[in-house]
Structures are given as structure tokens and as C-alpha cells.
Design brief:
By secondary structure, this protein is mostly helical. Helices cover about 80% and strands about 0% of the residues. The chain contains 21 helices and no strands. It is globular and about 55 Å long. The relative contact order is 0.13. The model has no long low-confidence stretch (mean pLDDT about 85).
């Protein structure tokens, strides 16, 4: 056996850490490259008019985006995922279910309140909704549905049945909202389901489910480990729909006017606010973890050091990522939408292509794909998941632009879309349904709300002149990005089921059609 000195061990750990960082940088570079390449290629054409400052800022932001995603993914591997698994497994093993449920509710409430994307959404509807009331209501919605998701795992209830029941309630409230003349809030309400399951909460929540499900065990442990993000995405939608019923009515929405120059001028303020937001959200998770570590978990020192390093990577990565999105990507997305707004065919095609590549740069997507491949023991490959998500998000953005062009309600998409999704859940293996509904919440991450949503708003500001209609049409892209993967991934499961049945039929046909000559007669030796 080979023994290493303390010095050799230190250098070995350092080498492995460097190797991990380089691997994550390579993965994130491949993820960001398509989005950056599309924008840079367009800048060289007469289709758009970008200044040198805008292009340099976008290029630098893309580089920092690569670094931010790499550090975030490394931090998720070292800290967020292990923390979630240990909290879920530790509380479940302790048999203190009441404490587990209380922790889940409080964590869902407080982390949601700290999500940066939710604050952005609240500020945009402050004219008719109290910011504090909106954020608190959404937080309670997420907390309650996270608690419900944990109860589902403990009792091993069917996810499809729960999803069907709660979406029926959601669409009942939608009908009430339309009847009251407040249909302009529908798109924003469904968008809230996507923005509240952000990059900070998703890795932790998914790992929490894995920890609880594997501790409880059972033949459906893999299936039960998914579904937390799916249910947590319903809570905000239902909460905002109910809150919209009490609002004062429609909105005269004015498109934002931020530019690269204005964002650069506020760089210090944006960076400071981003640091504060990320520190608050991460701090809440860490505070809960420390309390549980003292009284219940009691993990070894080596594991705590690893988690501490991972939290540092997560913090730095997310601050870099979100700052790059706010300064370099949001203004460019808005301007692209405004420049393409006059060419309806071009903006639809661009939305389709952009959607197929932008999902590659969502940080939590890679966490989801890794956990899916791991939990299913390679039965569902990361590559298949990624292709399905790319196609789904591309279609979602293209359909969103078409909706803006023809100015119709988002319910024309959502009602048949969720009907198909729930219908497919009756025919595919349950694990595909759980993964699909989780993927919807994960796909609509910060780059979707920070680049694709400004693109849609920019296009809407050119295509739609009526300010009272703009609010209902500009939003909704996040909702569709969250919905389409439900269909594409379950379609992937349906294809797998049909392919397996076809192979079984072919094999049975070959057995039944075999010649008698191929059957060995063992009675010869007995004559």
C-alpha cells in the first residue's frame, strides 16, 4: 500500500482541485459559447447596430459568465448538494418529522424572499401591488408547497395526481381572474413560478429530496427523490393569482430603458446589491445548516471544511454570474428585441435559435442533469436531457414571440400545454414525469429572466403600441420556458417506452417464427 506524506497529500488535493476547476471552466465555456457567438455574429451584420462599448462590455461579460458558472457548479458539487442531502437524510433518520416539516417551510419562505429575481418582478408591478405583500405571499406559497413536497416523499404519494389536482385549482383561479377583468396579470403570475426557483434554491431543494427519499428507501426511491422543484413552482403561481384578485386592475406598463452605458455607470451599486442579495440567500441556508449541524447532524470536521469551501465558490460564482448578466446581457437582450421588432419572421427565428442555446448557460441545468444521470444510474443520459431541454426552450421562446405578434392570451398556450403534460404523465414511467416537472422550474433560470425576458420586452415595445396591453404580452416567456420541457422530456420517456415495447415484440416474433430445425432434439441420445 502506498502512503503519502502530509505535504504530498496537500499537493494531491491541490492538484485535484485545480483539475476540477479546469473541467468546470471547460464545461461552462462550451455552454456560454453558442449564446456569445450568436450575438457577436449578429453584431457584424447590418441587422443590429451595436456600439464598440456595447460589444466590448458584452464580450467581457461573457468571459465572466464562464467563470461564474464554473465556480457556481463547483460550489454546488462541494456544498449545496451535500448540504441538502445531509439535511434531508439527517432529519429523516432522526425521526423528527415535525422539525423536518418546519425547517422545510421556513427555508422555502425565507430563501424565496431572498431570491434576487423575485425582487425584480415585485418592482415591476409595484404600481398596483405592494412589494412586501407580493414577496411575502410568494414566499409563503413556496414554503407551503415545499412542505407538501416533503410530505409527498414521506408518504410516497403519486406526483402526477398532486400536480393534476393543484393545476386544476390554478386554472380555476385563472377563470376567476378573467371574470374579474384582471387577465393582464395572468402572464406575470405564471412567470413567478419560474423566477422563484432560482440558482440558489434549486440545488439545495433537489438534494434535500434525494436525501429524504434515499433514507426512506422503498422501490420508488428514485422517483420520489424528484418533484420538489415541480411543486414549489406551483405555489408562487397560485399565490400571485390569488393576490392579483385583490389588486386595483390593469397596468400601463412602460418598457425599461436601461442600456449598457447606464448599467456601467452604476457598476459599483449593481455589484454591491448583488453581493448583498446572494449573501442573504446563502446566509439563510447556512444559518439553518449550522443550527442543524449543532443539534442533529454532527458531521465530521473534514466534511464541514469541504462545505465551507464550496459555499465560498458558490458565493463568488453567483455574484460574478449575476453581475455579468445585469450589466452585459440584460441591456443587449433588450436592444436585440427592439432592433428585431420590425422584422416579425426574423425575431421568431432568432427566438427559436436563441432558446436552443441559452438553456446551456443556465447554471442549475447542469446540476439537474448530473443528478438525473446519477439517480437513474445512467438510464437517462445527460446528453438526452440536454437535447430535450434545448428543443423545448427554443420552441417556448418562439411561441412567446408569436403570441406578442398576434396579441392573444397566454392561456391559449398554457391550457392545452398543461393538458398534454398531464395526459402524458398517465402513459410514461413516473420518474420521467417527476424529472420533467422539475426541469420546467430549473430551465427558467436567471439567464432566461435576464436575457430572454428583456428580448421579449424589447420586441413587445416595438410591436405593441397600447401600454395597457403591453404588460399582459411582454411577460409570459418565463412561463412558457417552464412549461415546454414538461412535454419534451415526457415525450422522451414515451419514446423510450414505445421503443422498448417494439423491441419486445420483435424478440417475441423471432422466437415464435423460429424453424423447427433450429430446435435441438435432445432425445436422440436416449434411443
Amino acid at each position: 500500500m502506498l502512503y503519502l506524506s502530509h505535504k504530498q497529500t496537500f499537493y494531491y488535493i491541490k492538484l485535484m482541485a485545480l483539475k476540477s476547476i479546469l473541467l468546470k471552466l471547460r464545461e461552462s465555456f462550451i455552454s456560454v459559447l453558442p449564446v456569445a457567438a450568436i450575438v457577436l455574429i449578429l453584431s457584424a451584420t447590418p441587422l443590429v447596430d451595436f456600439s464598440a462599448t456595447e460589444m466590448v462590455t458584452f464580450g467581457v461579460a461573457a468571459i465572466f459568465l464562464v467563470i461564474g458558472i464554473a465556480l457556481f457548479n463547483l460550489g454546488a458539487d462541494l456544498a449545496m448538494t451535500p448540504m441538502g442531502e445531509h439535511v434531508g437524510a439527517g432529519l429523516t433518520k432522526s425521526k423528527k418529522i415535525a422539525i423536518l416539516l418546519l425547517v422545510c417551510f421556513l427555508m422555502g419562505l425565507l430563501i424565496t424572499i431572498a431570491e434576487p429575481d423575485l425582487s425584480v418582478l415585485a418592482n415591476q408591478v409595484s404600481a398596483v401591488m405592494n412589494n412586501v405583500a407580493l414577496i411575502a405571499t410568494v414566499g409563503v406559497g413556496v414554503g407551503l408547497f415545499l412542505l407538501l413536497a416533503v410530505v409527498k416523499i414521506i408518504t410516497q404519494r403519486d406526483l402526477s395526481t398532486l400536480i393534476m389536482f393543484f393545476y386544476m385549482i390554478v386554472f380555476m383561479v385563472c377563470a376567476m381572474l378573467l371574470e374579474s377583468g384582471k387577465g393582464s396579470f395572468l402572464a406575470m403570475s405564471f412567470d413567478s413560478g419560474g423566477v422563484t426557483t432560482g440558482p440558489i434554491t434549486v440545488p439545495f431543494i433537489m438534494a434535500l429530496g434525494v436525501g429524504i427519499a434515499t433514507t426512506i428507501g422503498g422501490k420508488n426511491a428514485n422517483e420520489n427523490s424528484f418533484g420538489l422543484v415541480a411543486l414549489c413552482s406551483i405555489g408562487p403561481v397560485l399565490a400571485v393569482l390569488i393576490l392579483s384578485l385583490t389588486s386595483s386592475g390593469g397596468l400601463d406598463y412602460a418598457a425599461p430603458t436601461y442600456t449598457v452605458a447606464s448599467e456601467l455607470a452604476q457598476f459599483g451599486h449593481i455589484f454591491g446589491e448583488t453581493c448583498k442579495e446572494v449573501a442573504l440567500a446563502l446566509g439563510l441556508i447556512v444559518a439553518f445548516f449550522i443550527i442543524l449541524q449543532i443539534f442533529i447532524l454532527k458531521l465530521p470536521k473534514a466534511k464541514l471544511i469541504q462545505i465551507g469551501i464550496g459555499i465560498a465558490y458558490t458565493f463568488v460564482g453567483l455574484v460574478i454570474f449575476l453581475t455579468a448578466v445585469k450589466i452585459g446581457f440584460m441591456p443587449i437582450g433588450l436592444k436585440l428585441g427592439q432592433e428585431f421588432g420590425d422584422n416579425k419572421v426574423l425575431v421568431v427565428i432568432f427566438g427559436l435559435v436563441l432558446g436552443m442555446v441559452v438553456v446551456l448557460a443556465e447554471p442549475a441545468i447542469h446540476v439537474l442533469n448530473h443528478q438525473v444521470e446519477e439517480v437513474t444510474n445512467g438510464a437517462i443520459k445527460k446528453r438526452s436531457m440536454l437535447i430535450a431541454l434545448c428543443i423545448g426552450v427554443g420552441l417556448a421562446i418562439a411561441l412567446s414571440i408569436i403570441r406578442i405578434i398576434y396579441e392573444f392570451s397566454i392561456l391559449y398556450y398554457l391550457i392545452p400545454g398543461y393538458a398534454i403534460s398531464i395526459g402524458l404523465s398517465l402513459f410514461v414511467p413516473k420518474i420521467y414525469t417527476a424529472i420533467a416537472f422539475d426541469s420546467g422550474g430549473v430551465a427558467s433560470g436567471p439567464l432566461t429572466s435576464g436575457f430572454v425576458l428583456p428580448l421579449a420586452i424589447g420586441a413587445c415595445s416595438v410591436m405593441v403600441s397600447d401600454a395597457s396591453e403591453m404588460f399582459g404580452l411582454a411577460f409570459g416567456v418565463v412561463a412558457l420556458v417552464a412549461m415546454i420541457p414538461l412535454i419534451t422530456i415526457q415525450a422522451l420517456g414515451f419514446k423510450a417506452v414505445m421503443s422498448q415495447k417494439a423491441r419486445n415484440r420483435i424478440a417475441m416474433r423471432r422466437i415464435l417464427s423460429a424453424d423447427d430445425e433450429q430446435i435441438v432434439n435432445f432425445s436422440w441420445g436416449l434411443e
